[in-house]
Every structure is written in structure tokens, then in C-alpha cells.
Design brief:
Helices cover 36% and strands 19% of the residues. The chain contains 21 helices and 24 strands. The strands form 6 sheets. Strands 11-10-12-13-15-14-22 form a 7-stranded mixed sheet, with helices on both faces. Strands 3-4-2-5-6-7 form a 6-stranded mixed sheet, with helices on both faces.
């Protein structure tokens, strides 16, 4: 489940490129503290694979990093069109970083559509590597280029590197028994080799990856390796690339430990498996595939050796129904989905509230409403998680703030669900799910004890002295009811969606009992023990920026910029959105201004205003992309000065 990778400090001496492919001594080598690279092309050009491999080698080298994969919304958009462009952005550095970066320093454009879709994000002076073979008249006309941008002077403000990637790849693979079309598919490996030379990335990991991936297709494996090496050698020998760059490992950015690169969905998967082991419960996932949550189903299905059972249901309702049944049977039960699936699951979430059983509902948020933007990110399900059920059906809400933090958030959600016998909503999003960063693998003794005690016998004495089992008799501290596994002698009890009588669990239509049960379920959620919110305020600022979820990276980067410019601003970030931390009200009262950036139209701000009567100011964006640090810094500076 884990990859044994040395700590960044240790890797500084280990990650040395093989001697046969070191940059030639005649070429200039410049040291940089950070670089932002974006690979862009058709969805069939392998840009995600290219970016992922470059990221893996960068992680093994010891740099801090943050990534932003950006997929087309259509499964197979028309080739060469703007909607069909797929990109992968990687920000890596010799110091601690928080975001994938605002603007790329380097763009690798595999066709005219990739160039046109991304050129607006590049600062003047950025390097552009273009595959000139794809700049045909027809391909350029398809995206609205009347003349070639490589020749009309429109790119004069950039450092342009025209490279016939397709031709060079086909030439490098001419000795292989491949058709031209098959050979052309390896051009992404040629580009990867070129960029690996350009930034002194290790090569061993990619070579091993290709050998494993194409082990059953040795000719394809050898061709991809040859294309990768040809790209490296091209960078080393061509006069067009007179400079290569070094970005040293981030030796001081991390505590000592064993690290690996991890995406949010992978971290969530590992967190769920770890929670089941710490609770000594089998893990059951009932799920229906949906972007961008499907990776969790795929990953968990690989871990049967850890007692994980995965069930791909015929629809969202069946997925959560099976999960709730597994919870009744004594499993750590999980269902994964995105916003549209939460809507379908809402009735069963309400049933879980009524049954008071532990259940993790993981929502990897995406753009909405309805089908919306399946491959783009958004934070617009908070109010749905808070109120999206009939009746009074309160549910705790937990939100991770970085890809690696998804591991800890999964453990925290499991703690709450198991301790308080309640469904818990975990709100991640597409940005966290697909993005990646270094993650320190925790030691076993750092993990929480989630051990659960099932009911074993009677827990109530009747007036006549008879011992009985009351399924809704509550723990006085947590207000949780006992968890009785079916088949335990003497613990038979009624379940169902109709209101229960307090204590006995019998069906009850009594008005006073219903009022009591509604209030006790709410009191149970209100009483959940969550840590106080921590405030980063070194200079006693008058303005507080409050965030939740994946806005953590951009907000923190913006705050750093402002403080470096001499501004005073405080920052706090919420993991627990229901219930809120108990000190949150007092924190908010300390500041003259509270600014809440969100990738929605102000959902947390609405909750904060309603609960604490604070005039919170929203700063909102719903364009399917994460905030940029400079954008937030500008908005926060205006708030400070306003």
C-alpha cells in the first residue's frame, strides 16, 4: 500500500542522472528555485501520463511539488479542437510550495489547439515547445488561426522552440516493426525525455514504469523506451536548447521521514483502509462510478488482502443502500460519489441518520448543477451536505485541505462516524482528487485508535427486573446508541425509517417522542468533539481570511505574498463544517473584517452569517478552476485597504 521512498533530505545525494545521459559540459546549466511546466495536447496524446511520469521523477528527486491535471469534459472530444485539449501542470521547487502555480514558465504544446487554449496563461518570456508537425493548415484553421502563429510574429514575446516531435519520434523508431500511426503515439515519451533532460530529472523510474506497463507487449515497451531516450539525447545534442536547468531538492521543506507522491483520491483510499485496520473492522465500499470519484473504487478494489470488499452497484441508490446494510452488519461502510450522486443518495442518508449507524459518504465535488462540469472542480455542495435531506437530519461534515490531507480527513471522518454512530459527509473536490503532492507516510504509533465495542448483551433493566436490550439507549457522553451486530443472541431489534421510540426503538408516532428524538439527534451532532480552529496571526491583524477545503493552498500562498509585502492579515482554515469548532465565534469577533474565498457563490459565508451574525465578505469564483494566488492576494489587499 505504501512506496518506500527516502526523505527529500536523503534523496539529495541519491537522485543522480545516469552518466550516459548527463547534459553535455558545453551547455549552460542554470539553477532555479522553482519551475511551473504545463503539458498540453489532445486527450489522446498522453499528456496526463507524461505529466504523471514527470511528477513521479520530480518527487523521487526530492522537490516539493503540486499538480493540476485538467481533463476535457467529453470522453472523446473531437481531435484538434479547443474542447478536446487535455493539460497537466506541475509546479516544483527547492522550497515549500502550496499551489500548482498561477502561470506556467514552460508550455509544451502538441498541436495548435493546445497552443491557443493555453497561450493566454503564459507570461511574456515563457518558454514554448511546440510540435511543428501538427501545425498544418487544416489543424490551424480548426481552431481559428488564419496564419501560423509560429511565423506571424505573435509569439515574439516568448522563447519559442519549434520541434518536429512527431517526425523525430518516427525516425527514432524506424527500426521497430511499427506502423507510422503506432510510432507517432510515442511522441509524448519523446517530449518527456526532452523535458527530463532539460530539468535534470531522474530517468530510472520512468524506464521501470515503461517496462512494467508494457511487459506483455515487448515491442511497444522497447519503442517507448527508445522514444524517451531519443528525446533526452535530442535535448543534449540540439543547438536549440543551449541551456538546461537545475531545481535542487527541497531538503529543508519537510520533516524527516519516508515520503511518496500521492493524489487526493489515493490518499483518501489509503486513509479508508487504514481506518478499517485501526478500527479492526472490515471495509465495505458500495459505489457507482462517477467522475471524479471513481478512482477510489478502482484503488480500494485492489486491497482485498486488507479485508476490503468493493461493490460496484447498478446505480447510486443501490450503492449507498448496500453500504448502509454493511454498516448494520458491523463493517466500516463507505459510499463514494460526486454532487449528482449525493442528490440520489439523500433519502438513504436520512435513513442512516434515523438508524444512527456509522456511514462515510464521500463527495468529490465537481461543477454543477445536474451533470454540470464532470471534469472541473467546485465547492458548491456544502449546503447540500448541510441541508439536502427531508426533515431534521443533521450530518457531520469534514473537508480536507490538500491532496495529502485527504488521508487524515478520512481517518477523522471514520472517528466521528464510529464514535457517534452517525453518517458523516466528507467533502473533497476534483482539484484535490486529481492533484498530487509529497506525503509523509505516518508511523503506526501516530495513527488514532478507532477500536469499536459492539454491544454484547442486555443494557437495560425493566421495572420487573428483567434484563433487556434497548437499541436506542444512549451513551451519556456521546449520545451514541449501541451498535449490535445481527446474529448476536438476545440483541434482536427493529430497524426502519419510521420514527423510533427513545430507548426501545419501537415504532412511535407520539408527538412528544418525535420532538425529543429530533432534538437528541441534533444534540448528538452539536456535541461532537472537534478541535478548536487555529488562527495564524503573527501581527494582530484586523482582517481575517477564512477558508475551507481546497482553497487552503491558494489562500496561504496569497497570505504569504501579502505579508512579504508588509501587509498584516490573519488566516484560519476550517476542517469541520458541522459542527463548527467551539471557538470559531470568538475568533470571528476579534476581527474587523472577515473575508471568505470560495469556489461557489458564498455557501460557507451564508452559514457563518446565519450562525454568528458576522458581516462576512464573500470572494467567489465558479469557473471550474482553482483560485490563483495572485488573484486572491489582490482581492485580500483590497479588503485590507477598503
Amino acid at each position: 500500500m505504501t512506496s518506500q521512498v527516502s526523505s527529500p533530505a536523503e534523496q539529495a545525494d541519491e537522485a543522480v542522472v545516469g552518466e550516459q545521459r548527463k547534459p553535455a559540459g558545453t551547455k549552460d546549466v542554470r539553477r532555479l528555485d522553482r519551475v511551473i511546466i504545463r503539458f498540453a495536447g489532445d486527450s489522446g496524446d498522453g499528456m496526463q501520463l507524461t505529466g504523471d511520469r514527470f511528477t513521479s521523477e520530480t518527487a523521487s528527486f526530492g522537490n516539493d511539488l503540486s499538480t493540476l491535471p485538467n481533463f476535457p469534459a467529453e470522453i472523446r472530444a473531437p481531435a484538434g479542437t479547443l474542447p478536446g485539449v487535455s493539460s497537466f501542470q506541475l509546479h516544483f521547487a527547492d522550497h515549500d510550495i502550496l499551489t500548482p502555480g498561477d502561470a506556467p514558465n514552460v508550455l509544451v504544446a502538441m498541436n495548435p489547439a493546445a497552443l491557443k487554449a493555453n497561450i493566454g496563461d503564459l507570461p511574456r518570456g515563457a518558454e514554448i515547445i511546440v510540435n511543428t508537425d501538427e501545425f498544418t493548415k487544416r489543424a490551424m484553421q480548426k481552431v481559428g488561426y488564419a496564419a501560423s502563429p509560429l511565423e506571424d510574429g505573435s509569439l515574439d514575446g516568448y522563447s519559442l522552440h519549434p520541434v518536429p516531435l512527431t517526425t523525430l519520434t518516427v525516425e527514432a523508431l524506424k527500426e521497430f516493426d511499427l506502423s507510422r500511426k503506432e510510432a507517432e503515439r510515442s511522441k509524448n515519451m519523446f517530449a518527456l525525455g526532452l523535458l527530463s533532460w532539460m530539468y535534470h530529472r531522474p530517468t530510472e523510474g520512468t524506464e521501470k514504469f515503461l517496462k512494467q506497463k508494457f511487459a506483455r507487449k515487448p515491442e511497444i515497451m522497447k519503442a517507448n523506451l527508445a522514444a524517451f531516450h531519443a528525446g533526452w539525447n535530442f535535448g543534449e545534442t540540439t543547438e536549440d536548447f543551449a541551456v538546461s536547468y537545475e531545481v535542487a531538492p527541497a531538503a529543508t521543506a519537510f520533516p524527516t521521514g519516508t515520503y511518496r507522491n500521492i493524489s487526493g483520491n489515493l490518499a483518501l483510499s489509503y486513509g479508508l483502509v487504514t481506518a478499517s485496520r485501526q478500527a479492526d473492522l472490515p471495509l465495505f465500499l458500495g459505489s457507482y462510478p462517477i467522475t471524479p470519484a471513481s478512482d477510489i473504487l478502482h484503488e480500494l478494489s485492489r486491497h482485498k488482502n486488507f479485508g476490503v470488499r468493493t461493490f460496484q452497484a447498478e446505480d447510486e441508490i443501490a450503492g449507498i443502500g448496500a453500504a448502509l446494510g454493511a454498516a448494520f452488519g458491523g463493517s466500516l461502510a463507505v459510499t463514494t460519489t460526486s454532487g449528482p450522486g449525493v442528490a440520489l443518495k439523500s433519502e438513504t442518508i436520512g435513513l442512516a441518520v434515523s438508524l444512527e449507524l456509522p456511514l462515510l459518504v464521500i463527495d468529490i465535488q465537481r461543477g454543477g448543477p445536474s451533470t454540470g462540469l464532470p471534469t472541473k472542480t467546485e465547492q458548491a455542495d456544502l449546503l447540500q451536505a448541510m441541508f439536502g435531506r427531508n426533515g431534521e437530519a443533521p450530518v457531520p461534515i469534514v473537508a480536507p485541505c490538500t491532496p495529502a490531507d485527504c488521508f487524515d480527513a478520512a481517518l477523522e471522518a471514520a472517528r466521528i462516524a464510529l464514535t457517534y454512530r452517525t453518517p458523516v459527509m466528507l467533502l473533497s473536490d476534483g482539484y484535490l482528487a486529481n492533484g498530487s503532492e509529497p506525503w509523509r507516510i505516518p508511523e503506526i504509533d501516530e495513527l488514532p485508535d478507532l477500536t469499536v465495542q459492539f454491544a454484547q448483551g442486555p443494557n437495560h433493566t425493566l421495572e420487573d427486573g428483567t434484563e433487556a436490550f434497548w437499541p436506542y439507549k444512549r451513551d451519556p457522553q456521546t449520545l451514541a446508541r449501541p451498535w449490535a451486530v445481527p446474529g448476536t443472541p438476545g440483541l434482536e431489534h427493529r430497524i426502519g425509517g419510521i420514527e423510533k421510540q427513545d430507548g426501545t426503538g419501537n415504532i412511535s408516532y407520539d408527538p412528544a417522542n418525535h420532538d425529543f428524538m429530533v432534538r437528541i439527534r441534533q444534540a448528538k451532532i452539536d456535541g461532537i468533539d472537534v478541535p478548536d480552529v487555529e488562527v495564524d496571526d503573527p501581527h494582530e491583524a484586523r482582517t481575517l481570511v477564512l477558508g475551507w477545503g481546497s482553497t487552503f493552498g491558494p489562500i496561504t500562498a496569497a497570505v504569504r505574498r501579502l505579508r512579504a509585502a508588509g501587509e498584516s492579515i490573519a488566516q484560519a482554515h476550517l476542517r469541520h463544517l458541522n459542527p463548527f469548532p467551539r471557538n470559531l465565534g470568538a475568533v470571528l469577533q476579534r476581527y474587523d473584517k472577515v473575508v471568505i474565498p470560495e469556489m461557489n457563490l458564498g455557501q460557507l459565508a451564508t452559514l457563518i452569517r446565519a450562525k454568528y451574525l458576522v458581516d462576512a465578505h464573500s470572494y467567489n469564483q465558479v469557473n471550474g478552476m482553482p483560485f490563483k494566488a495572485e488573484q486572491l492576494a489582490t482581492a485580500l489587499k483590497e479588503a485590507i485597504d477598503g
